[in-house]
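Thread amino acids onto this structure.
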């Protein structure tokens, strides 16, 4: 039996959080992707096979949405919210990546979901989290990649920083969301209580640099871009990427 075969997940997220649902689906969860009319915007982003745009064949879309079932739902409509509430009754986890406060404006905040399903887990993936001075700021993957510090150590040392082609910051946020959801699921198994998992993509990016910040404190070395090598494994040796 797969690890999460008894779990049902409602995935409302766009590309900022889609990887979280993909990871949970790979672990056996029944993940239902809820897309707005017209489909998720990521369906229209390439690359596409033979460079022929097709919303069913976007490789970016497929990479983060395999093993999910799909349903079109207009959440902003009254009927859409009624259907969603019925789905929540059968769900263990809800994943979303709307701006902070959006679901509350629809009457679907965490407290509202708890009234429908007391033990439900809500996982929210946003650029800067649900609180703090940046909570309402919008941010692209490139913004978060740079603001989190990853660009400083990406690329050749004698050139400007580079960004990896695919949206790495969003992928880091999705992976962190999957991990946080798993922890909340374990806690629910032992306590019977659900949780609201608040994921800041910026914080997820910063966590990928956990070896960079303390390197100065330990070795008085500032890690920098090293081209095809991964720095920070030691002061004497680098590893090819």
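Threaded sequence (241 positions):
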């Amino acid at each position: 039996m797969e690890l999460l075969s008894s779990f049902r997940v409602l995935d409302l997220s766009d590309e900022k959080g889609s990887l979280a649902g993909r990871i949970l689906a790979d672990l056996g969860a029944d993940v239902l992707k809820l897309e707005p009319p017209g489909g998720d915007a990521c369906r229209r982003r390439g690359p596409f096979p033979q460079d022929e745009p097709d919303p069913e064949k976007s490789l970016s879309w497929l990479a983060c949405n395999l093993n999910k079932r799909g349903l079109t739902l207009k959440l902003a409509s009254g009927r859409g919210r009624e259907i969603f509430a019925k789905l929540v009754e059968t769900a263990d986890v809800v994943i979303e990546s709307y701006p902070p406060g959006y679901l509350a404006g629809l009457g679907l905040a965490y407290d509202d979901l708890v009234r429908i399903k007391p033990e439900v887990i809500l996982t929210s993936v946003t650029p800067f989290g649900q609180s703090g001075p940046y909570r309402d700021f919008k941010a692209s993957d490139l913004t978060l990649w740079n603001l989190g510090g990853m660009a400083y150590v990406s690329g050749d040392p004698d050139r400007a920083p580079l960004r990896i082609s695919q949206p790495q910051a969003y992928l880091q946020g999705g992976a962190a969301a999957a991990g946080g959801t798993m922890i909340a699921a374990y806690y629910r198994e032992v306590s019977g209580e659900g949780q609201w998992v608040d994921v800041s993509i910026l914080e997820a990016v910063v966590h990928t640099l956990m070896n960079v910040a303390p390197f100065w404190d330990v070795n008085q070395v500032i890690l920098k871009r090293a081209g095809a090598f991964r720095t920070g494994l030691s002061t004497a040796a680098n590893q090819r990427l």
